[in-house]
Amino acid sequence: MKQNNKWAMVTGGSDRIGKAIVLQLIKMNYNIVIQYNTNSQKAQKLQKKLHKQGLVCHIVQINFLSIKESKKKIKDIFNQYNISVVVNNSSSFVNSSILDDGLKTFKRVIKINLTIPYLIIKSFLKIRKKGLIINILDTKITQNKTLHLDYLLSKKFLFSATELLAFQSAPKVRINAISPGLILPPEDKDINYLKELSKEIPLKKIGDTNHIQEAVKFFIKNKFVTGQNIFLDGGEHLGQKID
Description:
Helix 1 (16-27) packs across helix 7 (209-221), helix 3 packs parallel to helix 4 and helix 4 (104-127) packs parallel to helix 5. The protein has a 7-stranded parallel β-sheet, sandwiched between helices. It has helices at 16-27, 40-52, 67-80, 104-127, 149-169, 191-198, 209-221, and strands at residues 7-11, 31-36, 57-61, 83-88, 131-136, 173-180, 229-232. The N and C termini lie far apart (44 Å). The protein has one domain: NAD(P)-binding Rossmann-like Domain (Rossmann fold, 3-Layer(aba) Sandwich). Helix content is 43%, strand content 16%. The protein has 7 helices and 7 strands, in the order βαβαβαβαβαβααβ. The protein is globular. The chain is of the alpha/beta class.
């Protein structure tokens, strides 16, 4: 295996945007640690594929709903591997509204989408001390109309946290964010779904995971950038309201 001393960790890195980020980091000669929760088949399949290419990829199962388990395993990862780049990509995306009873959905979504990234950042700052964090957000953080209230609220919180924690973590740790728009369709939709939605945004077209990869590369290469968020959305955040 082509092992070197450059390591990166991607949460939720076995599929979709997370997988695309993993492949970009591999191109940049990083050894990879992928966190997954329940999707062991996809994580193992990606690991096997990369191993066949002589590349280094370790997969770690972490249930982010357990803070105790998450704290221990994240600490172990940062102590074991020379990780300099972390991408907080794992996310809980569910329908919810202000009319829902109780806080069950809210607590789950906040734990995965906000508490865990915060925990990871604090642990990274304490153990690794130097490097780059990238938080994956959502172009809809500029909007207030949504069918996914708790999800959107958590991403708005993480957007504000990106700026605040970038200030707190400087100068040795940089923290930035990426807000994707029409990049990948929901798992129950196809590409035509995105093409129809794209008619409502300024650039009138959809993006792809290459745009995510280019943003990751930019944040790694440009060491004078921190506390920034890149909207990869064809201008959707400028005022169009689609959901």
